[in-house]
Amino acid sequence: MNQLDELRDIIVGDSAQQLNELAERIEDVEKRTKDVAEVLSPAIDQQGDKLANSLQKPVSIGLKRAIRSEPKEYAEILYPVMAPSIRRAIAQAISSMMVTINRTIESATTVQGLSLRYQSLRTGIPYAELALRRSLLYRVEHVYLIHRETGMAIESLHSEGTEAPDSDAVSAMFSAIQSFVQDSFSSDESSLLSGFKVGEQNVWVANGPNSMLACVIRGDAPESLKTELYNTLDLIRTQYGNSLVDFEGDVAPFSGIDLYLQPLLQSELKESESPRSPDSKKTMPLGSAIFMALLVLGGIFFLAKWMMGKSDIATVEHFLRDTPGVAATDIYWSNGKLRVKGLKDPDAVIPYETLESYGIEQELLVFNMIPFRSLEVDMEMQRFRNELDLPTGVELLVQDGEIQLRGRAPLTWLNSKGSRLRQLAADRRLSVKPLAATRSSVSTLLKTSLPYDAVKDLRLSHVQDKVQTTVVISGSTDLPTLTLLRSLFAANDWVDVTAIPKGAQ
Amino acid sequence: MDKKKICMVGDFSVGKTSLTQKFVNNVFSEKYLTTIGVKIDTVEVESTKLIIWDVAGRDSLSPINASYLVGAAGVILVADGTRESTVSGLLDIWAVVEKRIGSVPCVVALNKCDLPDWHVSESNLDEFASRDWSVFQTSAKKGHDVETLFHTLVAKI
Question: Which residues of chain B neighbour A149 with C-beta distances below 8 Å?
Answer without folding.
Answer: 70-71
